[in-house]
Amino acid sequence: MSNIRLEMPVLARHQGEWSGTYTVVDITGKIIDQHDSYLSCQFPENSPYSYYQINHYTWSNGKEEEHNFPATYKDQKIWFDTERIEGQAWEVDDSTVMLYFSYKQFPTMYLYEMIQISPDDNHRARTWHWFKNHQIYQRTLIQEERVK
Fold it and tell me: Which of 49, 71, 108, 113 could pair with 99 in a Cys bridge, judged by C-beta atoms 3.0 to 4.6 Å apart?
């Protein structure tokens, strides 16, 4: 049995279902994309994965995407290694999780995400900083509310 809930208590507070909006802006602040999201953050029992996240995105034009992010746990970090991404997440204080990941099909591109959870565990603010060739080129601003 993994000690993930004890050793990553901030991440454990994220368990549940989250509804929100992703707003992507370029480096001048111009909105280049906006869509709704529904995320499920799970700590499955009897699974090879200590953490499992499912992201479902919906755009106003009817486009939809769903992505699964299973993660293993080691050294007080969760580790992602899927067909799409590889990366890791760790806690930095009593309300913040940091995430680094890169897309496997774009080797010169990576991002850092800061995830803040509110003291009542019902709201999250997330910010992605996207880099290409070590230069920032866009940001994603995410505001979410717990629905379950």
Answer: 113
pLDDT tens per residue, range 9-59? 999 999 999 999 999 999 999 999 999 999 999 999 999 999 999 999 999
Residues listed for the chain: 148
pLDDT above 90 covers what percent of the chain?
Answer: 99
Helix (H) or strand (E) holding 81: strand 77-81
- Pairing mode of beta strands 96-103, 109-117: antiparallel
Q: 108 CB contacts (<8 Å, ≥6 apart)?
A: 132, 133
Nearest to 63 by CA among 41, 38, 36: 36
| Vertex 14 angle, CA 47 and 114, to 5° | 110
- Measured from the Cβ of residue 87, the count of other Cβ atoms closer than 10 Å reads 21
3-state secondary structure at position 76:
coil
Ordered DSSP codes for 85-102: EEEEEEE-SSSEEEEEEE
Q: How far apart are CA 71 and CA 122, in angstroms?
A: 23
Three-state DSSP class for residue 148: coil
pLDDT at residue 1 in the model: 45
Res. 119: pLDDT tops 80: yes
